[in-house]
Every structure is written in structure tokens, then in C-alpha cells.
Write a structure and sequence with these properties.
Layout (H helix, E strand, L loop, with lengths): L1 H17 L3 H13 L1 H22 L3 H6 L2 H25 L15 H9 L2 H14 L6 H33 L3 H18 L1 H4 L1
Helix pairs in contact: 1-8, 2-3, 2-5, 2-8, 2-9, 3-6, 3-7, 3-8, 5-9
């Protein structure tokens, strides 16, 4: 039974972290603008925070947070505003500065983590995982550890693929209008991901 639960957890973790959304759009845009290596702090920030959320979900704290309507509404509002702000930054970024003169910095560890903290979709996913797959072990600390490890690995691998895809696209995009189109698409995808907070 534990093996089946672990397999189900692993598949769910990879599907949920690889499917298009706010985090994958950010990773792709960051990979295109700054390259894979400079996108690693963003990726690790998202992965660490996601691991923490699913670990905490085993304690029931996530369900308690989502059960307070005003708190959930606040998270949705703050998360929406944060994603809109990130979308505007991406939209205004333009063609990457390869000379290093503009000193534009990629979103870092804490910026990536903040995306997950105010993302009610991530909290709801963590609650769903805890509710359906907590039978993976009788020890709640073991459950938390397994959840955290699986989701951290899945997020790092999935978001790395998205960032590398963005890095590859940076070699294909040669003109300012191509970069403007790419940045516009990434910004629109971020804005569209806000709908998942509310519906």
C-alpha cells in the first residue's frame, strides 16, 4: 500500500509542478532573460516553499487557514496583486542586456517563495495531498518529510525544464519585436494564472 501511495504522490507532484501556471511562466521568463544558472534562486525558492507548504499541510494548519474566508480572500487579493506586479515587470523588461550594463536582477529565492506563500491554489493543493495521501505512513513527521522531499524534487526538476526551455528560446529570439512578443505572452500567462485563484 505504501508503494502505491508513494507512486501516486510522485506522479501528482510532477504533474502539478510541471503543468502551466504562475510558477512555470516565471521560470520560463527568467530562463529566457537571465539564463538557467541565474534562475536557480527563483526555482529553489519556489521548491523550498512548496515543500514547506505540503509538509505543514500534514499538521492540518493549511486546512485551518483555508477555512477562514477572510484570510483566504486576503491571500487571493495579495497573490493576484503580486502576480500582476510580476507580469508588469516581465512586460517592461524588453530584450535581455547581455553587456551587463543595465544591472537588471532576476527574481530571487524570496521572490519565488513569496509567490507560493500568497498562492491559495498552492495551499489548496497541499491540503488535497494531505487529505488523500497521508496514509503513506503512520508517523505524521514521516508523512511531512516524504511530502516535502517529493515535492521539492518534483518542483526543482519541473521548473528547471521550464527555465531551460526559456534559456533555449533566448537563442532563437533575435529581434526586439520577438522579445516584446515573448515577454507579452509570458505576462499574459501570469495574468491568466490569477483566474485559478478565484475560480
Amino acid at each position: 500500500m505504501m508503494f502505491e501511495s508513494l507512486m501516486a504522490l510522485t506522479i501528482f507532484a510532477f504533474v502539478s509542478t510541471a503543468s502551466p501556471g504562475g510558477a512555470t511562466s516565471l521560470a520560463t521568463a527568467s530562463g529566457a532573460q537571465f539564463g538557467f544558472m541565474r534562475s536557480l534562486p527563483l526555482i529553489t525558492g519556489i521548491a523550498f516553499t512548496l515543500a514547506l507548504l505540503v509538509a505543514v499541510s500534514g499538521t492540518g494548519l493549511s486546512a485551518a487557514i483555508l477555512a477562514v474566508p477572510s484570510l483566504e480572500f486576503g491571500m487571493k487579493a495579495v497573490g493576484s496583486a503580486y502576480l500582476l506586479w510580476l507580469a508588469i515587470i516581465i512586460l517592461k523588461t524588453g530584450t535581455p542586456d547581455r553587456s551587463g550594463k543595465m544591472h537588471i536582477k532576476p527574481i530571487g529565492f524570496f521572490g519565488g517563495g513569496a509567490l507560493l506563500v500568497v498562492n491559495p491554489k498552492a495551499w489548496a493543493m497541499a491540503v488535497g495531498v494531505a487529505g488523500s495521501l497521508s496514509s503513506i505512513s503512520d508517523n505524521p513527521y514521516a508523512v511531512a518529510g516524504i511530502f516535502a522531499a517529493v515535492f521539492a524534487i518534483a518542483a526543482i526538476l519541473s521548473l528547471s525544464i521550464w527555465a531551460m526551455t526559456g534559456s533555449y528560446l533566448a537563442r532563437v529570439l533575435n529581434t526586439d519585436w520577438q522579445w516584446h512578443l515573448f515577454n507579452s505572452i509570458m505576462a499574459v500567462l501570469l495574468v491568466l494564472s490569477i483566474a485559478s485563484f478565484w475560480f
